[in-house]
Amino acid sequence: MSMNPIGFKNISSLIVNKHLVIVRYLLVLICITVISTLLPKENFNYDFELNMPWKYDNLYAPFTFTIKKLPDELLLEQQRMIDSIAPYYKIEAKVKEKVLEQFETSLLELYNVNDNPNATSLNRKDSILAVKTADRLLDSLYRKGIAALDEEHKKSGKPALNTINLLVNNTVTVLNTNQVFTNITDACQYIDNYIKSELPENLWDIIEPLCNSLQPNITFDRRTTREITEEELKKIAKTKGVVQQNELIIAQGALVKNEQYSKLQSLKNAYETQGTAVVSTFFFNKYAVNIGHFILVFVTILLFTVFLQIFEPATYYNSRKLTFILIFIAAFIYLIRIVVDIRQIGQTNFSLYMLPYCIVPIVMRNFFGNRTAMYVHIIIVLLSGFIVPMGFEFLFLHFIAGLAAILANERAYYWSDFFKSTAYIFATYLAGFIGISLIQEGSWATIPWVNLGWLVVNTFFCLLAYPLIPAFEKLFGFVSNITLAELSDLNKPLLRRLSRKAPGTFAHSLQVANLAEAASLEIGARPLLAKVGALYHDIGKTLRPIYFTENQTTEINPHDDIPYIESVRIIKEHVTHGIELAKKERLPNVITDFIRTHHGTTRVEYFYQNFRKDFPNEDIDEPFFRYKGPLPYSKETAIVMMADSVEAASRSLSTPNDEQINQLVEHIIDSKIRDNQFVNCDISFKDISAIKKVFKKQLRSIYHIRISYPDIMERQEV
Hints:
This protein is mainly α. The chain is 61% helix and 5% strand. The two termini are 65 Å apart.
């Protein structure tokens, strides 16, 4: 019992001290679990299409299963059943009495001389004859029946169009439509013919009011028709046979016809649904599949995290970046699963060729570089192979398109570049699709060109990656090449203020930016990031520009009138002022880091040496003469530190020659190494050697090397 508090304290201490590591492991484990649950649980991993060859070995039924009718097949059978059912009608009672009463009313209005001056005279005897005649006619008409056919049953080609079921007192009588009047017009024609042949001409005027009074006495019984139709539809069998265990379903190379397609689809559904008969045989297989998927996903994601830890430590140890990558992988796998499920369940016609795999490398490359983009793309292509019911050729096509997306977006900073890169992606899709189709089909004539149309849709969707990039930037605090290109615009407010208030510093920053960009390109760093960082690294000098030599246009130096201690404080403050300006203008943190690190923890050498010279007997507080740091943490920040010092020192060369430039570059950069300024970044001596060569070449071009001079002035930046 006494050890429990100690154990709890140790655990608490471990959690507090290692919470970032624990969070990182939890993120990876959650990602593995989520992706594993998204992978299909059935063992049926065959890709097949109607009227296409079966690409696998002979397939035998692993168990007995019923053949389910395909949705289209079942729908067609249901429609045939509906068309074969004659509609149900019912007799409306007392219609004749209502019609006769209305006719008598119309007759009085027509022949009443007092009310109707235009009416013809009709004696009482003729009026009685007209009513009796109408009564006989209506009795004859309604014994035969006047039906109001429903519009739904007037469609041409319907098998049951000429037959109706007449429901009278719960008794059904099947009638042909020729046995009844199917509209008022036919009944009226019957009245017209009878009256004109049997009555004198003076009674013909009763034809119109009698026709206008007619109403159908046989009406559509929608409720009964629907109930009978539903009962008949329930009788339709949803299966069409049984496949016995070990029965050959399809042979290798055979075309997947309708019969084989039904069997394959039924077998696939049996695996997916894991019905009672299947569960008893494959109960343990279901869990074995889950474990197998988990193992494969675990190995894949684990190798990816090891890759990040070794080759991209800045990404691996940044929880925000690692979270984004893992969420992106899981989300894209989830998107693929949704699309596949919609296509299978909904039986929709769109092709899986429209899946925009290239969005992955486009987004990843903009934030994390080529290597990470490539690795993430490979992971998604491989894992999606368990979900997408397509063959190796499908995955190969999207893999090479992803390579094209990475290469095409190498310097895609503007919208015109985006459209060009999209064109390169489509060209890769086109070449790959034609090549694969020729291998599969063996002929130009049988290439399924419709899939090429879906690849066009795919390429269009890839354009959506570019609007997504700014959204991800805001959400996760990243900086893409698009944002960097915008920040490199010299008309940005901070850069315009720098050029106006500190023109010497602005010119210095431009030269540093050129040196940093060229060096970054040489060693495989991010050239645009180094360039933008160099442009903004000295913006803090806009507060007191006159205290920096590059902005002094006269012989007057304000440092001559103040103590060395005050001068050092002012010089060092340009870093803190720069950070404040960057935060005020909402510059990305990755750019602000260049302001923090471009001097590292180096000494303000000029004033340090002068202080020692003028006050040799005083103790020197050396840390006061050093910048507060931090040290450069990346190749780009280290390059800007070197470029800043080299460019500033090169201005002290009055007549530089090749030897002086070589010595200057070597001396400045070696002094940084001796001062341990690069211990926190992953830059190598090989990289530093390449950077020196670039700086020397650039400086020779800037100063147009003249004749050699024996001496060199070594002076660090103030």
